[in-house]
Each structure stands twice: as C-alpha cells, then as structure tokens.
Amino acid sequence: LLLNLEMVRRDECEFSNFMIHPGHGRRYVPFAFISTKPVLSFFSTKCFAQYKRKKNPRFVAWTRTFRRLNKKSSEAVTAKSRNRKSNRQPRAIVGMDLATIQERRAARPPPKNRTAQRKAAEAEMAFRKGQKK
To answer: Is pTM, for the whole model, over 0.70?
Structure first.
C-alpha cells in the first residue's frame, strides 16, 4: 500500500507557524470571543501556552515568524550581495586649494614598511620564550 504524501493534510501552528503533521499537535476552540477561525491548531503545548499568555511570536526567538523577520534562515545568508567600494575624488578644503594639498602630499615622506620590524620582534620573542624553557 503506497501513500501519496502530497495528499496528507498538514496544518500550520497559529503561534509558531511550524507544520503540524496528522496525529500531532493540539487544537483549541476559543469560545470567549468570536474568532475568524473556529478551530486554532498549535504545534505543541508550549506554543499553546505562549498564545494564551498573548505573547507576540515576532519577539519569541524560536518561532518561524521571528526567524523570517530577523533574516535567520540559511537561504538569506547565501544571497547577500557585496557592496562596491565608492571612489574618492580629491577635493579642495576651505582655506586650501587642491594644488596645494597635492604638493604637500607629494612632499611627505613615504610610510615606513613595518613588516620587517614586526618579524624581527616576533623572532626575538620566540627566542626569549625558547630561553625560558
């Protein structure tokens, strides 16, 4: 006997939006007020208790609503687009024209290459640690 799984009716939890498979979950019929839905389905007693306490599923971290709103799904992470870096144009500043700024920049000494200094310091530290042992 083969079962067609697409024909199986699955409900969605009113609180957490989890799928409820047949034979699972809890059903609740509110009678104190007129509801648009006569029967509410809940995934678990935990969901039902949160609903009765009038908790908002958007602020409860384990609900699908929260995860959707806060972009916690793995599909959203992979689809992130990279921003392009904007090009900076050299401009004049108040009290100094562009030509003067470029002259001063050219006159400044080039920045020091500190990689050699760092490597020497790391080698010295390694040597000191070797001597302590």
So the answer is: no
